[in-house]
Amino acid sequence: MLISVIIPCYNEELVINETHKRLTHVMKSLNHDYELIFINDGSKDRTQLILQDLAAKDSHVKVLDFSRNFGHQCAVTAGLNNCTGDVAVIIDSDLQDPPEVIIEMLDIMQKEQANVVYGVRKKRDGESWFKLVTAKMFYRILNRLSDVKFPLDTGDFRMVDRKVIDQFNQLDETNKYIRGLIAWMGFKQVPCYYEREARFAGETKYPLSKMIKFAMIGLFYFSKKPLNMATSLGFASIVLGFLYLLWIFIMIIFSMGHLVTGWTSTIALIVFFGGVQLLTIGVLGKYIGNLFDEVKGRPEYIISEKINFDDKKTP
Fold it and tell me: For 3, left (φ over 0), alpha (ψ -120 to 50), or beta?
């Protein structure tokens, strides 16, 4: 069996050597052939130089160097597109997801005859309460809105077999939400529970702005319910507007003297209906923007250099 380990990297010069060390120790303990595919996602530090050095010393190390920063999901996609393993493991380079869990994942996959083993975080060290709370809220809201149910408290850390890899490689969506796509595929998927560690070194590459953008991709690519919500809000605003007009007529007919000249209620209604309209337009705009990205047909990523790859075996 050949095991491919896919490791996206962005400005990880402080941790790459330790990641390689721990992954190598784990893979050797499994007594299977393996490849470590590092994807340099346009790093600005010494990440690429370190990867080149590792590849020169270790033939198991393969490197995909992007022409610029395309994002984490594109890096994972590139790894899946270019791996040759019978199974593949997706793991970040920051060592928050312990490489040692791979041993347990493989054991579960073989015992359960599963196609996917996804990591479920029992505990998340080194993360702020804000990120913990918003992450829990996001997964639960996405599950309520999506037509496909996703496992809660999971990331991209998972093991997938060749059947899933081949099906994934046939998907040509531009903006991928990988954990959602793998859940959407079906097949037999089972959890592996583990405790997530604090980042080994460096800073998080997912600030609030990127987290929001990532959440939007997950929401608008896997659910049409925001469109239904926009329609419901539009209908509700019409009903409220009609009730307001009815109230005005009643005031005019029965108690005209009680009408107060002023613009408070008028401005409040303008703000409310204007907000509903802008929200609806914004939701439509997100879906149209997604269509625009897909229609352009641009590649998801551009590879400037491949190291230790056999071009006959990889696309």
Answer: beta
